[in-house]
Design goal:
The structure is a single chain. By secondary structure, this protein is an alpha/beta fold. It has 2 domains: 92 residues, no CATH class; 196 residues, 3-Layer(aba) Sandwich (Rossmann fold), CATH 3.40.50.150. Bound molecules: S-adenosylmethionine. S-adenosylmethionine binds next to helix 9, strand 6 and helix 12.
C-alpha cells in the first residue's frame, strides 16, 4: 500500500491505445443502483466518468485546445513531484491525460457520425475537464479520484474520495485464495470474510471465484467505503453472494452462525507518524482510516490475527497484507509464538517486487 500506486502503466497495458472502447466489457449498465446488501448507504455524489451519459460535446479545435493546455501543464511538472515525494513525473501525467481522454470521449457509431461534422461527444463538459486537470496537477488529486475508477485485476472498480484506491500488490491475495480453493474444492462453497473491504476489490474478486453456495461477508468501518463496496458488488451482479456490512472488523459478524473457511484482509498498516511523509496523492487525499495502523502500524493486523483464531473453521485459510519485511516477520513470530498451536503452515509470501508483503496460513 505504501508503494507508489501512480507509477504503474497497468491501465495502458490492459487497454491498448488503439481503442477508446476500453470498457467494452462493462459488467453491468450503470443506471440506478439501490445500493448495499446490508449497508444502508447509497453511492455518493459523482458518477465515475466512464459510467456517465455522453451529454456534452465540443468541437475538435476546442478539445485540442484543452488537450494542449493539459499536456503543457503536465510537462511543466518534469521530475519535480518525483524528486520531492516519489510522486508522478511528467511522463506518467501525460499517460494519465491520455487515459482521461479515453474515459471522456465517446467512441461509438453515433460518435463517428458526430465527428464527421467536427463535433466530439463527451461524458464531461470542457469546463469540468479544465477543473479536473488543475486538481490533478495543482492539488495532486489522485487520477483515480478524478475519473472515479481504478483498473484492478480484470475489474474496473469505482472509487471516490473516502475510499482507498486498490493497489496492484493486493491483487496477489486473490491469487493466494485461488491456489487454496483449487486444492480444496470445498472452499469454493464456504463462507469467506474480507475485513476492511474498502472499494470491495477483494470481495468482488473472491466472490467471482466461488460456486453457488459460496459467499463473502465484507466489513468496513467507513460508511463511504461500505457504500462504494456495495456499489461495486452490485455492478458485478454479486449482491446475492457478497454481503457488505458496516462496522468494526469482526463486530458485523456477530449474528453469523457459520464458521468461515477463509479470511482475507488488507488493513491499515502504515505507522501513524509516517503518513505525513507519503506521496502527496496519498497523504493529502486518501482516507486516514485506511492508512493509519497505529504507532508501529500493527494495531489492526494483531487484532485481526487474534480474531481469526477463534472465527475461522479448523483448516480455514487466512491471508493478510502487511507493510512488508519487519511487519510480516513480527506477525509470523506472533502467530507461531504467543499464539502457538492456533495456526499452522504460517508463511510469508513476497509480492511481485520481492517485498515480504503477505502472511498466510491455516487455522488449527
Ligand atoms: C488499506 S485499506 C484496504 C481496502 C481494501 N481492502 C483494499 O485492499 O483496497 C483498509 C480498510 O480498512 C478499513 N478500516 C479501518 N479501520 C477499520 C475497522 N476498525 N473495522 C473495519 N474496517 C476498518 C478502512 O476504512 C479501509 O477501507
Amino acid at each position: 500500500m505504501m508503494r507508489n500506486c501512480f507509477s504503474s502503466s497497468i491501465r495502458q497495458t490492459l487497454y491498448p491505445s488503439t481503442s477508446l472502447f476500453k470498457y467494452l466489457q462493462k459488467p453491468h449498465p450503470a443506471k440506478s443502483f439501490p445500493i448495499s446488501s446490508s449497508s444502508s448507504c447509497s453511492f455518493p455524489t459523482t458518477t465515475p466518468l466512464f459510467l456517465r451519459p455522453p451529454i456534452h460535446s465540443a468541437s475538435f479545435p476546442e478539445l485540442k485546445k484543452w488537450q494542449d493546455w493539459a499536456k503543457h501543464l503536465a510537462l511543466s511538472v518534469g521530475p519535480k513531484f518525483l524528486e520531492s515525494d516519489n510522486g508522478p513525473d511528467a511522463d506518467l501525467l501525460c499517460r494519465e491525460l491520455k487515459w482521461l481522454l479515453e474515459d471522456v470521449v465517446v467512441d461509438d457509431e453515433n460518435a463517428t457520425a458526430s465527428a464527421a461534422s467536427g463535433v466530439v461527444k463527451l461524458r464531461a463538459g470542457l469546463e469540468e475537464l479544465y477543473a479536473l486537470w488543475r486538481q490533478r496537477i495543482e492539488e495532486r488529486r489522485p487520477f483515480q479520484y478524478l475519473v472515479g475508477c481504478e483498473h484492478w485485476r480484470d475489474l474496473v472498480l469505482c472509487v471516490r474520495e473516502g475510499v482507498l484506491i486498490p493497489r496492484p500488490e493486493t491483487e496477489q491475495i486473490v491469487d493466494l485464495v485461488e491456489e487454496v480453493i483449487c486444492e480444496d474444492g470445498g472452499m469454493r462453497e464456504g463462507l469467506w470474510v474480507d475485513l476492511g473491504t474498502g472499494s470491495g476489490a477483494l470481495s468482488v474478486a473472491i466472490g467471482r471465484l466461488l460456486l453457488d453456495a459460496g459467499r463473502v461477508i465484507a466489513t468496513d468501518l467507513s460508511p463511504i467505503a461500505a457504500s462504494v463496496a456495495a456499489f461495486n458488488v452490485r455492478r458485478y451482479g454479486l449482491q446475492d453472494k457478497v454481503d457488505v456490512r458496516l462496522g468494526s472488523w469482526f463486530e458485523p459478524l456477530q449474528d453469523v452462525n457459520e464458521k468461515p473457511v477463509g479470511l482475507v484482509s488488507n488493513p491499515p498498516y502504515i505507522p501513524g507518524d509516517h503518513i505525513f511523509g507519503l506521496q502527496a496523492e496519498v497523504a493529502r487525499h486518501e482516507p486516514r482510516i485506511a492508512l493509519d495502523g497505529g504507532k508501529n502500524g500493527m494495531d489492526a493486523l494483531l487484532h485481526i490475527c487474534e480474531g481469526a483464531a477463534t472465527l475461522l473453521k479448523p483448516g480455514g485459510f487466512f491471508a493478510l497484507e502487511t507493510n512488508g519485511e519487519k511487519q510480516s516477520e513480527f506477525l509470523v513470530d506472533f502467530m507461531t509464538g504467543k499464539m502457538k498451536g492456533r495456526f499452522r503452515d504460517v508463511r510469508v509470501v513476497s509480492d511481485f517486487a520481492g517485498v515480504h508483503r503477505f502472511v498466510s496460513g491455516f487455522c488449527c
